[in-house]
Design a protein that fits this description.
Layout lengths: L3 H10 L4 E2 H34 L4 H4 L2 H27 L8 E2 L6 H6 L6 H34 L4 H35 L1
Antiparallel strand pairs: 1-2
Helix pairs in contact: 2-4, 2-6, 2-7, 4-6, 6-7
Length: about 190
């Protein structure tokens, strides 16, 4: 969703470059939306856990205020992460032209173009990525372990199917999101 506008402009103008400012804003929005999606998938897994594991207390536990708070915290955390990386990019100096000959700016690729010391930027990328991928994924895995445990306690097969169908679509989205991210990571790790 973040790169589509620039992609459409590139198709129309036949120009594959992006300015430094455009690149910086694209990196910022990619980080906001990626982090937000990761956090929201964990929040949704918790919601499914409460719905299946504690169905009678669902409305007491998942009050509208808690839902809004969890979404707001997800947005706040992902925005702070994006701003941190964007501000750290602003501190770098670049030896080359301020235009990047590609329509999509990836944080790691922009850092590789810098002339100044990028150790802190690289350290931040690995640390924050580990936290942003690890903590929500751990929450999702824990929620689904509890969900499977609750489903296995249901005596009827129809009840088990209904409980699993409640979280089947979410599990599909989680697999697509993390599977794609893992595939891209492995592909870039192998190509380097």
């Amino acid at each position: 969703t973040t790169i589509i506008p620039k992609l459409l402009v590139n198709i129309q103008t036949q120009d594959q470059s992006i300015s430094y400012t455009g690149c910086l804003s694209q990196v910022c929005f990619v980080l906001i939306f990626g982090g937000l999606e990761s956090c929201l998938l964990a929040v949704m897994a918790y919601d499914r856990y409460v719905a299946i594991g504690h169905p009678l207390r669902y409305t007491v536990i998942m009050k509208p205020f808690l839902c809004v708070l969890l979404v707001f915290l997800s947005l706040l955390i992902s925005t702070m992460n994006a701003l941190l990386h964007s501000l750290m990019l602003l501190n770098l100096t670049f030896c080359t032209d301020q235009n990047i000959l590609h329509f999509f700016c990836e944080l790691v690729q922009v850092i590789k173009l810098a002339c100044s010391d990028t150790f802190i930027n690289t350290l931040l990328i690995y640390t924050v990525t580990s936290v942003f991928a690890g903590v929500p994924l751990s929450g999702i895995i824990f929620s689904y372990i509890e969900i499977v445990s609750s489903i296995l306690k249901i005596s009827s097969v129809q009840g088990q199917k209904k409980a699993f169908s409640t979280c089947g679509s979410h599990l599909t989205v989680v697999c697509l999101f993390y599977g794609t991210a893992f595939g891209v990571y492995m592909n870039s790790a192998v190509s380097e």
